[in-house]
Amino acid sequence: MSPGRAAVVGRPVGHSRSPDLHRAAYAVLGEEIAYDRQELAEEELPGWVAARRGDPAWRGLSVTMPLKAAAAACADELTELAAAVGVVNTLVLRPDGTVLGHNTDVAGIVGAVRAAGHVPAVPAVAVLGGGGTATAAVAAARELGARSADVFVRSSARAGGTAAAGRALGLPVRLRPWEEAATALAGYDVVVCTLPPHGADELAAALGRAAPTTTGVLLDAAYDPWPSAIARAWSAAGGAVAPGLDMLIFQAVDQVRLFTGRSLGEPLPREQDVIAAMCTAVGRPIRVAPAVPRNRT
């Protein structure tokens, strides 16, 4: 059998660590899957995916910005979770020529947060930003056991997708003014920053001036540069910090499951060895898979 193929698609993708993660995982599993990068503009994605439908070599695509919204339209079927959040970061190219869309960012957030520190059974969760990753953060809040999520945004008009995701998931979402974040964040058990690199630098400076104390966990989805200003400020306040690289690791585990023909609920052979190899490949301390039930649909 010829080797399988998979890739990360987006623009830009030259900085992506996904090839390091996937190649390390497939080496542990003994899977012959070549994983590459492919730079694509939004308008190029549908044709590129269509050209690979039914090709037995192609297993799937990891989708990064700015293609996550466009990727959903390329799928014939969405998992329940992907349909709820409205954003897809994984396309599975199935042998029958159909394409399945899923969002593994949710599992990535949950895994990274739980690996970083203690999360109470019913955590108070805050999300910074209202874009595509924020919808995944809202879904992750539900998975972590939250009964609601507060989303801090500069413009509520741009956070419609996040509010819609909350309604679809049955999780109340409250949009809060960005200006309230600096004084409110220390009171949350979990904070997920979904802003691009340097997007929370001013907030970090405000936190530094306020000098709060916290025992919560902060996940900053941006992983370069690291540590970010918001991560440094949160750590100085006494909180635990999860880098976006850990989120990337844990979300890639579910992609590896799907790209090797397994279901989302099916453990990988030597799963902890796979995670350890992925961590090593990107220079992170070895993390342990969270031993908690997750909604896999």
UniProtKB/TrEMBL annotation:
Domain Shikimate dehydrogenase substrate binding N-terminal: 8-91
Keyword line: Amino-acid biosynthesis, Aromatic amino acid biosynthesis
One GO term (biological process): chorismate biosynthetic process
Matching Pfam families: Shikimate_dh_N
Cellular component, GO, one term: cytosol
Gene3D superfamilies reported for this sequence: Leucine Dehydrogenase, chain A, domain 1, NAD(P)-binding Rossmann-like Domain
GO molecular function, one term: NADP binding
Transmembrane segments: none
Keyword Zinc-finger found: no
InterPro entries: Aminoacid_DH-like_N_sf (IPR046346), NAD(P)-bd_dom_sf (IPR036291), Shikimate_DH-bd_N (IPR013708), Shikimate_DH_fam (IPR022893)
Pathway(s) per entry: Metabolic intermediate biosynthesis; chorismate biosynthesis; chorismate from D-erythrose 4-phosphate and phosphoenolpyruvate: step 4/7
Protein's name in the database: Shikimate dehydrogenase
Species assigned in the record: Kocuria flava
